[in-house]
């Protein structure tokens, strides 16, 4: 009974106040001063009789085109938490045109309880001003939410309840939002009101999860723990004075699941993905613009960083140019010789490092940056040192533990008589999870996936791969042997040539010596003949 009274009071109080106020307003023949006095009297009367307060949260944030964040949070909170208790709801198609969003209908009241206080909410809208012609339909109709509560809960509502609603509403919004995959490859999309964005986006709908990702279970658990620790460490990062971000380097041969892992991470964390194509960026200025336009709760990905740009080469050249003096200082990017000129024409390693460490870090938190590569050893150490790429994750060829995950996903098989042979073959052969998965997919003519057939097919493929690898190895060894023999032959030839040259040189020398002797004896003969002549 008391509950009913309490529920009835605020509406009654508001109704009395509104009636008196409206009455005073329509009495246009009453002079202004009297009318204002009547309005003040009405407010006082309401306050006297009505122990309830109300707070209005308007849709308009004051900024053109922008809806108030508190209004959006209240809307999300009421739709999620209180809508089930309302009797009149409205359904709309969400922004992505897929989800149906149900919310409380206008003028429908819903109650909420918070720390022992009861609160009444209702939504309504202010009609557009009669003398304003709007360009966009519905633009001038201002919607609002109003909460009514007893005045003894004033402090509780202001200090705790409204901040609580803001937090909860934001969480619900993130939970319900359509996640997006952004890319800088295509030309940027325009917002309806002008400014062109440097990113274009599509809905992110990759189905990969950590459950479907085939990798060593311990390694996988380690990655999940790391992500969870990161997500829950907002205060910790603030305390130690570090930007709330984390870098991962995913490396391994093609088809081992690096891109799949990124999708699984995004689905696990509920983050957007920004796929950054470095080759499509003109210079460091454009890179800066792109980084600044990324939002929180996102993963920024640079795939195949080794092929993305001449980052390593640039730095090595710089290193050479700068001499030995600071060659030990690996972590300091060397500036290009002509920084301004360079900045105008291309993205440099130092530009990239600066954004990872500096400017981007200051842009607010909860961001992950991921590089992928097939050749970790070819990357500049500065790019992947701990602190920048905090965690290095190796994605390797498919072994038995990973295979079991694929068999469960693709064939719904947990145990099978062929598993023993497959295990043996997987230990002896390097096959990527992508190739293993490919062998588990074929369908029979009856459009069914028969585990016996698929696993037998996989065994065939593994045997073939093993034979191919053995043949390739034999060929390599043969080539190595040939090369060795060629080298030995070249060496022998060189030795023979040297010996021949030596011998020739010796013969030549001996000949010259001989000729020299002959000459001296001839000269001696000539001299004695001359002496004889003189004596005569
Ligand atoms: N570890 C894995 N777990 C589950 N599926 C995988 C895994 N690795 C590969 N696949 C399958 O193979 C396909 C290709 O894998 P993915 O693109 O993730 O490989 P990658 O390591 O990024 O290769 P690349 O180096 O060529 O970019 C995926 O679509 C997925 O179906
Ligand atoms: Mg990939």
UniProtKB/TrEMBL annotation:
Cofactor dependence: Mg(2+)
The UniProt record lists the keyword Magnesium: yes
UniProt GO molecular function: ATP binding; ATP hydrolysis activity
Catalytic activity of the protein: ATP + H2O = ADP + phosphate + H(+)
InterPro entries in alphabetical order: AAA+_ATPase, AAA_N_dom, At3g28540-like_C, ATPase_AAA_core, ATPase_AAA_CS, Mitochondrial_chaperone_BCS1, P-loop_NTPase
Compositional bias of kind Basic and acidic residues: 320-341, 473-522
Xref: SUPFAM superfamilies: P-loop containing nucleoside triphosphate hydrolases
Name this protein carries in UniProt: Predicted protein
Lineage summary: Eukaryota, Viridiplantae, Streptophyta, Embryophyta, Tracheophyta
């Amino acid at each position: 009974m008391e509950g009913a009274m309490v529920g009835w009071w605020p509406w009654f109080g508001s109704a009395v106040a509104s009636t008196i106020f409206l009455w005073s307003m329509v009495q246009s023949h009453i002079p202004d001063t009297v009318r204002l006095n009547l309005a003040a009297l009405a407010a006082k009367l309401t306050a006297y009789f009505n122990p309830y307060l109300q707070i209005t949260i308007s849709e308009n944030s004051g900024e053109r085109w922008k809806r108030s964040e508190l209004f959006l949070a209240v809307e999300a909170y009421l739709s999620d938490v209180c809508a089930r208790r309302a009797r009149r709801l409205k359904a709309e198609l969400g922004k992505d045109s897929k989800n149906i969003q149900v919310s409380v209908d206008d003028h429908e009241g819903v109650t909420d309880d918070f720390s022992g206080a009861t609160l009444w909410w209702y939504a309504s809208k202010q009609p557009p001003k009669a003398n304003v012609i709007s360009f966009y339909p519905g633009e001038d109709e201002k919607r609002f939410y109003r909460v009514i509560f007893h005045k003894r809960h004033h402090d509780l509502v202001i200090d705790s309840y409204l901040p609580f609603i803001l937090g909860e509403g934001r969480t619900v919004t993130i939970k319900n939002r359509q996640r997006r995959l952004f890319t800088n490859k295509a030309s940027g999309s325009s917002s309806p009101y002008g400014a062109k964005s440097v990113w274009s986006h599509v809905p992110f709908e990759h189905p990969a999860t950590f459950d479907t990702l085939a990798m060593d279970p311990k390694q996988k658990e380690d990655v999940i723990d790391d992500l969870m620790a990161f997500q829950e460490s907002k205060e910790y990062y603030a305390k130690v004075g570090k930007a709330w971000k984390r870098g991962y380097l995913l490396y391994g041969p093609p088809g081992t699941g690096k891109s799949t892992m990124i999708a699984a991470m995004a689905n696990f964390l509920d983050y957007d993905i920004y796929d950054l194509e470095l080759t499509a960026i003109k210079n460091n200025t454009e890179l800066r613009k792109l980084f600044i336009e990324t939002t929180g709760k996102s993963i920024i990905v640079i795939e195949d960083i080794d092929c993305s740009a001449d980052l390593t080469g640039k730095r090595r050249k710089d290193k050479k140019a700068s001499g030995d003096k600071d060659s030990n200082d690996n972590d300091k990017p060397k500036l290009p010789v002509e920084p301004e000129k360079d900045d105008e024409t291309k993205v440099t390693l130092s530009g990239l490092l600066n954004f990872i460490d500096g400017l981007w870090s200051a842009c607010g938190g909860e961001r992950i940056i991921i590089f992928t590569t097939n050749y970790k050893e070819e990357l500049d150490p500065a790019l992947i040192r701990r602190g920048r790429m905090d965690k290095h994750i190796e994605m390797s060829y498919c072994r038995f533990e990973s295979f079991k995950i694929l068999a469960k996903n693709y064939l719904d098989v947990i145990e099978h008589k062929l598993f023993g042979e497959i295990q043996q073959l997987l230990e002896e052969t390097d096959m990527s999870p992508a190739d293993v998965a490919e062998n588990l997919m074929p369908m029979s003519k009856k459009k069914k996936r028969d585990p016996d057939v698929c696993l037998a097919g996989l065994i065939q493929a593994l045997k073939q791969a093993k034979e191919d690898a053995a043949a390739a190895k034999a060929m390599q060894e043969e080539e190595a042997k040939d090369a060795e023999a060629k080298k030995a032959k070249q060496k022998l030839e060189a030795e023979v040539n040297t010996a021949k040259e030596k011998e020739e040189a010796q013969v030549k020398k001996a000949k010259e010596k001989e000729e020299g002797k002959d000459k001296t004896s001839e000269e001696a003969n000539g001299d004695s003949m001359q002496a004889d002549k003189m004596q005569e």
